[in-house]
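Record 1 of the preview.
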Amino acid sequence: MSLNNTFKKKLKRGNPVIGCWLSSGNPINAEIVATAGYDAVVIDHEHGPGHLQGAISILQALGEDGPTPIMRVPWNDSVYIKRALDIGVMGIIVPYVQNADEARAAVAACHYPPDGIRGVAPHAARCSRWGMRLDEYLSELKEKIIVICQIETEEAINNIPEIAAVPGVDMLFMGPSDISASIGKVLKAEDPTVKRLYTKCESRMLETGKFLGTVTRPGKTTEWTYRKGFQFVIAGSDTKLLANAAQAQVENFQNKCQKKVPKKKTKKKIIKK
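->
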């Protein structure tokens, strides 16, 4: 695990960055994704089956020079955020942030006093290499950690200016699936009402001047998303990449191999009378 946040450095230089969800909680998948060259790997503990002990194995698999490890925590929970940072993730995505108060709570959970409420236990925390690199970790904590608030509802969209104005919020992350669900139109990205809400969310986020992130969605490529003004795009997940590749291979086999294999001619048995 590196104590440097190369992902945040690239953002500050104005470079677009690409990420991948790690939904399986599997360290082998993490190692494969890291080798592919993503800028960030987002360990998903909101929807994935992972747990913190397993996340340590994932961080070890990502390696010193691998992608920046970020975790999407299950909820805006100061205890879980503290424990996630203690094991060594360099960024936190907080789901379902609705307003400025909730954004302030998320930021406070990520920082030690006087800037926040994060508890201190250096010799029990992997983030500081069990206290052996404590000074290095503490000296640049504000620069190293990235706090990302996820915008997922119409209420949150209306409150984007206030959420973005909270000191310590580094990035706003648009969650299109939950935005559609919040108005009862789950995954209906082409619904006119959903499309208007997406447009409103994008325009309000762009006005904040914050770093912006999102996922690719149907009909919108990674390139389109960057051109729209997002700097961080999560373009896939380990489970989806595997599922797509497996499905494509089987379909290719069925379409090109099974249909072309000539059937063996069977000899008619001659029955002697």
